[in-house]
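Hey L., structure's done. Input below.
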Amino acid sequence: MRLNHIRTAVLLAFAPLCLAQVEVVATGLQAPQKLLLTPRGNFLVTETNVQPNLGRISLVSRAGTRRSLVEGMPSGTEVAGGGSGPSAMALRERTLFVGIGGGDSERRGPMGASIHNPAGISSPIFISIVEFRFSVDVDQVGGVFQMTAAHQNALADGATIEMEDGAGAKASVRLLTRFPNSTPEGTGYRFSNLWGFAFTGDGTALWVIDASQNSLAKVDLTTGRWERLMRFGPTRNPTPVGPPVLDAVPTSIRVYGDQLLVSFLSGFPFPRGEAKVLAINPESRTVEPFINGLTSNTDIFWRPRAGQRAQFFVLEFSANQSASPAAPGRLLRFDGLEPVVVASDLRAPVNMAFDAATEELFILELSGRILKTSAR
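Output:
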């Protein structure tokens, strides 16, 4: 299938405004990373922590009530001082796949190079994908599954563990696969960060975005075998600040017909207009520009419309990260070639989910909020 692309080099700071009403659905989430809708229209949210093994997966109702689904997951302080732990998710029926970040694996060494934490790491299953097979739908789980250090060690050894939530539900848990924690780079290492998942069209594999390795991989959901299909190279830094080139930093992935749409943050100093969305053909491993001129892009979502071209929503972490303080984030909408600013006062937005039944778009912020706006 050949798809119509959006190609625009417009600097989106001047995009027209069509501000929609934005409602706060939930607050107080713990360093949330990703969200997805459950079969009953609630939310699963991955949350991390700077303390070891305090990562969790929360079930948040449409009324904003949070309760834990899984606690005790790997987490730790990452190199820049924030938390790292549970991140990307994908849910198929009663099976949930969860990506685990690098936690406290990385530290700064001599001359600023990234090195392995000399104090050791707090979990043996960082940079992995954990598979949960629940005995009931996630919305029906009434208790909390508590992961322990012994569970993590058993998973690292290849065992399948059985967990109970204390309210009658069970979960069979295994380590689907592990990725290299790091690869050598210069005098140090480049560490990994699993940041975006999407099921393949036939549901037999996962597309996996690594935001730090700047790569796209495919993981077989039966065997756990993975292959890195593509690495995204750096681009020229157009500013006098920072390094001569910008890291790509892919942030999300969506299936779009026979292509994949991948959003890119771009690296420090996060110049305005340098982020983008690329369209990737995974069969031919070719790349085409899809949307240019973005700033600090963290997610893209699209939906078909009867008798019209598809509609696209793009999330920007900040309209200007280099400002002091950094500018708020934005939600952009593309009905055609020109972008429209739908929401302009977002607090570090990182992820979106869409409810087709209600035509509502939900936005997750690092601030700990879930927001709702209409996609009509």
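The longest strand covers residues 170-178. Residues 149-156 form the longest helix (8 residues).

-- N.
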